[in-house]
Design brief:
Length: 402
């Protein structure tokens, strides 16, 4: 007998999850607060860029197994996959999780499973239980758990199935029931723990990566001072069998790595202690973006002083990582906006999106032709074969490292 699944949030995690489950014979009801997103999905189309997702969604909708709406319905399993950003001052914001929980409360009944997939501060799954209880749900008869997503944009459809998953319930029974559900479509190992440990595990994964990227970014700034090619240096250093320095960039972006470490820092502060390394890494990666802005402005000013006219600066890439359309917390987008706000003549380039509501998107070959200063902010595949002559080139992501 197929399960009825209600997925709240049809973004970069919710929609792929909904489409996958629908293609695994679940009856899936997807919920999103944006009507245009709902309409797009119900036509069998997608509103985000992700390889293979369009095929999954089209098949799911055509089979009648996936339907989208702005309101939830009764189901066997509820999956909450909404954003968890932060307020000013890097204070965690779980407002969307609370709203989603309130929205499903009238439909949750005895024996249901409620899963929080959103990356969340420690204690958020307990908050979901609290909100359900406040809204009339007998939570002693409902199985509530956290199972953080841990997929890579660009490979989501594969990694949803192949990656190991961590499941932590608010009770051992909730953990067991939720593990059984994930085992129906995950080929990787499904690991059991508590809700709070599952929450902390996801934050730890992303903080670990943030710390290691910070090392690479700090190294790149030092190499600039020492007149050393950082790409060559990292390549040589990584020949050591126990060293694996990551690649630097213009900062760190995305909905996870640029956000999640602050959840730990904030929790530590509330507990009257400090997450020193994690906080410093966040500050280094934020500073790298400011450093890049100053490098670009100085290059544009030098060109103007030398040539007697303002430089046209091509900002190559706006997404937070290569070959995707995701602009969330993107340092490249932030750099582009800052340059524009400070009067720099910018040619904004992003081959993975058609338009932006704040500025014009320029085709990348045209931008290279028109620009005086070319700044590579994201290592999109389209940029790696470009031949650039008679331009000032600033490469923050290794595009020209051939």
């Amino acid at each position: 007998m197929s399960k009825k699944v209600c997925v709240i949030g049809l973004g970069y995690i919710g929609l792929p999850t909904a489409a996958l489950l629908a293609n695994r014979n679940c009856d899936v009801h997807g919920v999103d607060v944006v009507q245009s997103t709902v309409d797009t999905i119900n036509k069998g189309e997608i509103h985000i860029v992700e390889p293979e997702l369009d095929t999954f969604v089209k098949a799911a909708v055509n089979s009648g197994k996936l339907k989208a709406d702005i309101k939830p319905v009764e189901a066997d399993i509820f999956i909450i996959a909404v954003p968890t950003p932060f307020h000013e001052g890097y204070v965690p914001n779980i407002d969307y999780v609370v709203s989603a929980t309130k929205a499903i409360a009238p439909y949750v009944k005895e024996g249901n499973i409620v899963i929080l997939e959103s990356t969340s501060p420690v204690g958020t799954t307990d908050k979901v239980e609290e909100v359900l209880k406040e809204n009339g749900v007998d939570t002693s008869k409902v199985y509530i758990a956290h199972c953080p997503e841990r997929v890579l944009p660009g490979q989501i459809m594969r990694e949803l199935v192949e990656n190991d998953r961590i499941v932590g319930g608010t009770t051992p029974e909730a953990t067991q029931k939720t593990v059984e559900f994930y085992k129906t479509f995950v080929s990787g190992e499904v690991l059991s723990t508590t809700a709070r440990t599952a929450e902390m595990a996801k934050l730890t994964e992303n903080s670990f990566r943030d710390v290691n990227i910070a090392f690479a970014n700090e190294l790149s700034m030092l190499c600039d001072t020492f007149d050393i090619d950082v790409w060559e240096l990292i390549s040589l250093t990584n020949r050591h069998p126990r060293v694996n320095v990551l690649q630097p960039g213009a900062g760190v972006g995305g909905h996870c790595i640029a956000v999640d470490p602050w959840f730990i820092v904030h929790a530590a502060k509330e507990a009257k202690t400090e997450a020193k390394i994690i906080k410093t890494a966040r500050e280094v990666n934020t500073y790298k973006t400011e450093w890049a802005i100053e490098k670009i402005k100085n290059a544009a000013l030098e060109f103007e002083n030398k040539n007697g006219r303002k430089a046209k600066v091509a900002c190559m890439g706006l997404a937070f990582k290569p070959d995707i359309d995701d602009l969330r917390e993107s340092p490249a987008l932030y750099i582009t906006k800052r340059l524009l706000s400070e009067g720099v003549d910018v040619l904004a380039v992003e081959p993975n999106i058609k338009s932006h509501n704040e500025f014009k998107i320029v085709e990348y070959t045209k931008a290279i032709e028109e620009a005086d200063v070319v700044t590579f902010l994201v290592a999109h595949k389209e940029f790696k074969e470009l031949d650039i002559d008679n331009k000032v080139v600033l490469d923050f992501c290794g595009v020209t490292n051939k």
